[in-house]
Write a structure and sequence with these properties.
- With 306 residues, the chain is an alpha+beta fold.
- It folds into three domains: 117 residues, Nucleoside Triphosphate Pyrophosphohydrolase (Alpha-Beta Complex); 33 residues; 133 residues, Nucleoside Triphosphate Pyrophosphohydrolase, CATH 3.90.79.10.
- The protein contains seven helices and 16 strands.
- Strands 1, 2, 3, 4, 5, 6 and 7 form a seven-stranded mixed beta sheet that branches.
- The longest helix is centred in the middle third of the chain and has 19 residues.
- It starts with 24 loop residues before the first helix and ends with a helix.
Length: 306
């Protein structure tokens, strides 16, 4: 099965990120002054939208929101047109919405399905970058304030004896479809703490310092579900900027049917046949989040057998 060309939500962004321009403040200033330059406005991680979707501001309206923005970041080029994002989080929500000429603010995840994947990717890119700026206002080494630099893709510590350069960090996590060791074909799904009754999904966890992705798969499956796995195979990845994740999908095979949940992160785990999953779908349940890679992992597994 060819998975190389498949685009998941928040992937396939159409922007040329134009990294060399980030270190040219004169060029960035010139781009901001262009009347065709597009500005995407966000408020506290939420997109500002009208009836057509996320607002794309130009000319005088773009200049107005930039004057009120806490941060302005350069996202890249759409052909010859520069695209920036601004953070209006310091304003009351209604004021931010009105200033941008929008109707309301929404979480970008609520727009998935209405937007093309590339458009959702650009909105999520803006969201993740602006969120990082709000969380990185002070240096973790010396405590001095930091200042945005590099077109919004770095911050510099202003402490005279420090001057540390700070860059956005990605938090990688693995997400795994575990297959049973023998027939009939079954996959392991779990109900997580806080999930609704009968709400099952694939298993996932964050990668720790000093681990490979495959090491993280084996550790998380053993810790959370008491399952030893082999044949760990990469399936694909997904940007997950909520706020700064990268979801890396795997398939693995358990060495036995035994399951033992930790009782903390997982409350329940059990094996599902393909027939059982198809029955759940027919009853109206979704296979994982529709905008998340676990949905793809489960769909692929269903398609691989009867």
């Amino acid at each position: 099965m060819d998975t190389a060309e498949r685009v998941l939500a928040y992937g396939g962004g159409w922007l040329d990120r134009a990294a060399p321009l980030r270190t040219d403040p004169t060029r960035i200033s010139a781009l901001l002054a262009e009347p065709t330059t597009v500005v995407l406005a966000l408020w506290q991680d939420r997109c500002l939208v009208d009836a057509d979707g996320p607002v794309r501001l130009t000319a005088e309206r773009a200049s107005l929101v930039r004057s009120a923005a806490g941060e302005t970041v350069f996202l890249g080029l759409d052909g010859d047109v520069a695209v920036f994002a601004v953070d209006l989080s310091a304003l009351p929500e209604r004021a931010a919405v009105e200033m941008a000429g929008a109707a309301r603010s929404v979480d970008v995840r609520a727009l998935v399905g209405r937007l093309e994947p590339g458009d959702a990717a650009v909105q999520a890119y803006a969201r993740g970058l602006l969120h990082w700026h709000r969380q990185q206002r002070y240096c973790g080494a010396c405590g001095a304030p930091t200042a945005a630099d590099g077109g919004g893709h770095m911050r510099t510590c202003t402490g005279g004896e420090c001057g540390r350069l700070l860059f956005p960090r990605i938090e990688p996590a693995i997400i795994v479809l575990v297959e049973a060791p023998g027939p009939p074909g079954r996959c392991l799904l779990a109900r997580h703490a806080g999930a609704a009754e009968d709400a099952f999904s694939t298993l996932a966890g964050f990668v720790e310092v000093g681990e490979s992705l495959e090491d993280a798969v084996r550790r998380e499956m053993a810790e959370e579900a008491g399952v030893t796995v082999t044949d760990v195979t990469y399936q694909g990845s997904q940007a997950w900027p909520f706020p700064a994740g990268l979801m890396v999908g795997f398939r693995a095979t358990a060495t036995s049917d035994e399951v033992r949940v930790d009782g903390e992160e997982l409350l329940e785990a059990r094996w599902f046949t393909r027939a059982e999953l198809r029955k759940r779908v027919a009853s109206g349940r979704t296979l994982g989040r529709l905008d998340a890679i676990d949905h793809r992992l489960l769909e692929d597994w269903l398609a691989a057998g009867s």
